[in-house]
Structure formats: structure tokens, C-alpha cells
Write a structure and sequence with these properties.
alpha/beta; Rossmann fold; seven-stranded mixed β-sheet; 7 strands; 36% helix
């Protein structure tokens, strides 16, 4: 590294994921083979025709990072009139969601889910048209809880401006986290974005958990241990 390079602060492109190891279970691998053609949308650096991808025109919600897909499948089941375009890079999580949507939830087919196994930042940049989304979900993004790593957090000012540009007027962004420090940052960044307006009248700025977002097993375990969970919901003016 040159002396000039040493003087330049380290910068990295923010991504929507952290590389983690993980192997597919037999059921997840079977889900890829059985349901992949129906529910997977390949990443392409061109605008996505959501009507063609879902086989219908309907309000479209982008989910960034769905983990193992438990909450995603539930939300899709209770909001059948909405389309859910879901981004996740980790194969076990993709396989788990494919299994859930392919087999259905409580006997209900989930035809309103499509999955892009790719970094959501690049999907936003290349596949999502401006003013085309009705909502964005970001549930429990990596908190990068050490102070020196906070700069790696997904939800930062430039990224939120990008998210807002993809929303239709009246569209919403819903973020949830179980790290209070991150919740404070999310609320601050959302509040500073001129295109967005908080939906809650609560004095602290956090919204009550919307009915459509379920309590996951992980979240329930945290609540039992006394951990808090904060939901932030803003709309585009």
C-alpha cells in the first residue's frame, strides 16, 4: 500500500449481507430442485417486469434479507393481495423459504412470493425502477454492534435515499431491530430523509408492531430474556 493510500480512510461498498457458511439440508436442496423454477427470479442487470414475474399486477413489497423466511411466509399468507419480492444471498435461507412457499402455510398456497438470490443493493440499482415499489421490509439487519463496525450497517443516509427513490408516493419502509443503538440510528436516518415521514404519533418515534409482522422464535426468545424490539415505519410523501 502506498503512503497516499494509507492516508485515505478505508471505504467499502455497503452490502445487504454478511458472508456466512452454511450447508443445505436435504429438504432445502429438494426445495431448490422442486420449487426453484417457480419461485426464483434470476438476477439480471435490467429492470424487472414484476407483472410478468408474478403473473399478475399487484402492489409489490421488496424484502431485504429474510433469514430463514419464517416471517416472510407468514406475511405473504396474511397479505395475499400483495406481491413479495424477496432478496437473500444465503442458500440455506433461500432453500428454507422455497420449502415454505412451495408447500404452503396452513394449507394456503403462496403464489405471491418471488426470490432473488443476490445482493439487494445491486438488485435495487439495476432491477427496480424508480417509484415502482409499494413497500420495503428490512427486518433485523445485521447490527454490527461494535462501535468501530457501525459504518458497515446497511441502513445509512445514502442507502435510505436510494430506498426512498424506489417507492411510489404513499409507499412505506418498515424496519425492525432488536438492537436499541441500531434502532436509534434507523430512526435518526429515516427522520433526516426529506422524502420520508414517520407514520407514528408515539412520542419516542417508534411504531407499535404492525399486525402483519409475526413474532419469530428468535424474537420470542429475546423478549423472554428482556430484550427489546423496535419497529420503525415511514412513508414517502
Amino acid at each position: 500500500m502506498s503512503e497516499v493510500e494509507k492516508e485515505i480512510p478505508y471505504q467499502r461498498t455497503i452490502r445487504s449481507f454478511v458472508i456466512r457458511a452454511g450447508r443445505l439440508t436435504t429438504g432445502q436442496e429438494r426445495a431448490f430442485n422442486t420449487f426453484g423454477d417457480q419461485f426464483l427470479v434470476p438476477y439480471k442487470p435490467e429492470l424487472l417486469d414484476t407483472t410478468a414475474a408474478f403473473g399478475r399486477a399487484a402492489p409489490t413489497i421488496l424484502e431485504i434479507g429474510f433469514g430463514m423466511g419464517e416471517a416472510t411466509a407468514h406475511i405473504a399468507s396474511v397479505r395475499p393481495s400483495d406481491n413479495f419480492l424477496c432478496c437473500e444471498v444465503h442458500a440455506p435461507g433461500v432453500g428454507a423459504l422455497l420449502k415454505r412457499v412451495g408447500e404452503g402455510v396452513d394449507g394456503q398456497d403462496l403464489k405471491n412470493v418471488r426470490i432473488i438470490q443476490h445482493d439487494a443493493v445491486e438488485v435495487l440499482d439495476h432491477m427496480i425502477a424508480d417509484a415502482s415499489l409499494d413497500g420495503i421490509h428490512i427486518f433485523f439487519p445485521d447490527p454490527w454492534h461494535k462501535a468501530r463496525h457501525n459504518k458497515r450497517r446497511l441502513i445509512q443516509a445514502l442507502f435510505v435515499t436510494k430506498l426512498a427513490s424506489k417507492l411510489k408516493a404513499g409507499g412505506y419502509i418498515h424496519a425492525a431491530t432488536d438492537w436499541q443503538n441500531y434502532a436509534e440510528q434507523i430512526l435518526e436516518v429515516f427522520s433526516a430523509e426529506s422524502q420520508l415521514k414517520n407514520t407514528t404519533a408515539n412520542a419516542d418515534g417508534y411504531t407499535d408492531k404492525p399486525d402483519y409482522r409475526p413474532l419469530t422464535k428468535f424474537e420470542n426468545r429475546g423478549i423472554k430474556l428482556g430484550h427489546g424490539v423496535w419497529d420503525v415505519v415511514f412513508t414517502k410523501s
